[in-house]
Amino acid sequence: MSETISGIITIKILMENKASAMGYVDYVDDSSVQKWELIKDREYIIPGYQREIRWKRQNVQTLLDDVLNNSKFLGNILLSTAQKNLYEIMDGQQRITVILMILERLKKYLDVIPLCKLQNNTFPNFAKELEMDFQIDRIEDPVVKDLYIEQDVLNQREKLSQLWMCICTYVDNLPPDTRSNLLENLLDSEINLLITKVNPQKNSSRRLCVDYFIDINNKSESLDYIDILKAYAFRERFDKATTAWIQIQAQEKVMTEFYYPKEVMFLHYILCRVNKGLGYKVKKISDDLRLQSEVILPTGKKYLKGTDIEVLITDTSFYQNMLSCLLAFQKFIDVTLKSKTHPDEAFLAYINTNPNGNKLDFDTKSNIFFIVNSIVRSSDVVPRLLLMKYYLDVICDISSTKDDYKLIYDINFLATCFSAGNPNAKSRASYSSIVMKEKWKDALKRSATSVKNQFHKKIQYGREVQYKGKATATSGEYLAKRVAAVAYSYVRSGTSLKFDEKKYNRFCSSLDHNAEHFLINQSYSVTAKYHGNTIKYEYSPELRGWISYLSNYLIINEDINGLLGNACIGDKIRIIDKYMESHPDACVLVDPISKRNYKLAKDSFISCPSPEELDACVSIESAQELLTNYYEGAFKTEFVSYLNAIKVYTEDIFSLS
Fold first, then answer.
1. 425 & 474 share domain
2. CA 366/CA 506 separation, integer angstroms
3. Mean pLDDT score of the chain, rounded to an integer?
4. Does residue 613 form part of some domain?
């Protein structure tokens, strides 16, 4: 008997909880028509390794419209089974889920067939939440509610709720006769059901099922390359791959501070690893994993531009290693995030403290943490490509040298320039060309060297700094610290730049300075005094938009920062000048960028009303008006002047260290 059978059946036969049979032809042992028994109380299972629900309301609307007047053929559904009461859905989970939801809604008005159970292991409480319209706020017990939230590993509740509301609105608004037609046509609609009979003890049995999945769906519109890569991993070793995939999804749910979409993470892994088995002949790969130029492998075999990269991969353990490495990488990042501000023992355990007998000092080890931490907390995903390469080829390689570990400084330089540079010039192309080279370490050093003397010109001080697509009151703060740390830690030696590890460590580990919102405050307001009485100005929307600009920040001594409060810009300058005058030996402004920008700010913001000018007003109302007029008039002009001054200030920032 063949291991995979197929037959055309109706949705009623598929979904009704009663014994039925599917006819099929066994061309291996017997060419006559055979029967496959679908027993009563069978259960359809969406495995935990499956992707999240992807259908949109438009897909649901289309399905409902299609079957409203006529029954339809609804495509292929692929199941695997080791016992006839349990069927894992390999392909078709989107349709089965939505069809079940439609039938559940029709139950409100009509006698619907008893339905087979659908167990969604990616959303364990599917049936219960369907009963409550996916509104977990109805759950009064906070412990139970938290458990429901925790078990929604793929964050599907909102999407399922949207689909359910769409179905409810559609069904509820139908006339009774039309509603009956919808039910009849849906149950009479047909699918091509493919069932693969598997032996859980044999990976070859599972592999055949996955082969069908790949052949049916490879590069179709219904799947993205993540599904295809996952399928190849399952084909190699189904049991281990499914476990790893579920763990990857669960780990992604836990790391809420780490923005790294799966499709980007998998792409980065392919870029980092695929060339190792291809003689480093592949130069460019597109975002959908296709060759961007012709490739001739060492074997002489030629592949044309546009070929799917998986066609070139012959290593029988490539995809399994991919899942294992990505899960390990996620756990490394999780440890980094949990370490917060300083490296703990869990993080340091990843670092080989004595590579090749050349001991790493504490500055180097802790600097690795500071840099990794800054990159993973940024929402820019492209620099993570370099970080992943560093993790795979340095941290995970016991033969790494001390110099290999110090490559993190070049990665930090490039990553900082990327995040703080021109957003229109951002792409992964230059970084891809680094990680795909056999001598990637040399390529990394060359790339960093080529931009070091342009650092002060590459930084964009007059644009919004965003985190996950939004500019916030703190999104620019973290990047400002990263830029300042670079400027503080590189020292010019003749025509070259030398990185001072101790200075970098001192900057990152010290708690005696922080990033001050110098021009636009986090409270979105400034205060001043009129004869001892407080007057206040609330920023306009235009001014609020400038809060995340790098030019808005100074890295400043914590003590004096506490004196500034929400003072207007003129008062802040006076407070800082007075403090520096009375404390000539104090390090008030830490890095050369802050020193430069403070000097330019003093030259630019010259019209802010002084305390004497405010007190000279005839009333508190007129003082308030004077402050308001400044911020809505001259301040804007001076801000633009300040930005222009930064742009034309061409002196090498490292010479100011």
1. no
2. 10
3. 89
4. yes
Helix extents (H) in 255-400: 262-273, 318-338, 345-348, 362-376, 384-390
Query: Which domain, by its residues, includes 568?
Result: 466-656
The reply to whether 461 falls in a domain is no
| 496-536 tens-digit pLDDT | 788 999 999 999 998 889 899 999 999 999 999 999 999 99
CA distance 395 to 505: 20
Q: Evaluate whether residue 211 is within a structural domain.
A: no
Nearest 5°: the CA angle 240, 244, 250 is: 150
- Length, in residues, of the chain: 657
Burial degree of 630 (CB within 10 A; 0-12, 13-18, 19+): buried
For the segment 133-158, what is each residue's pLDDT rounded down to a tens digit? 999 988 888 889 888 888 888 889 99
213-233 mean pLDDT: 63
Q: Terminal CA-to-CA distance of the chain, rounded, Å?
A: 78
Tokens 């763990």 belong to which residue?
247
For tokens 């029967």, name the residue: 35
Q: What is the pTM of this model?
A: 0.81
> Who's near 27: CB < 8 A, 6+ residues apart?
2
In 3D space, the residue among 43, 11, 8, 12 whose CA is nearest the CA of residue 23 turns out to be 8
Domain boundary, last residue among 385, 417, 452: 452
Coil, strand or helix: which one is 471?
A: strand
Sheet of strand 190-197: strand arrangement: 4-10, 190-197, 73-83, 86-91, 43-46, 117-120
When divided into structural domains, the chain yields a total of: 3
* Judgement on whether residues 477 and 438 belong to the same structural domain of the protein: no
Task: Identify the DSSP state of 498.
Answer: E
Measured CA to CA, the distance from residue 46 to residue 51 in angstroms comes to: 9
**∠ CA 303-308-314 to the nearest 5 degrees?**
75
Q: What DSSP assignment string belongs to 382-437?
A: TTHHHHHHHIIIIIT-TT--HHHHTHHHHHHHHHHHHHHS-GGG--SHHHHHHHTS
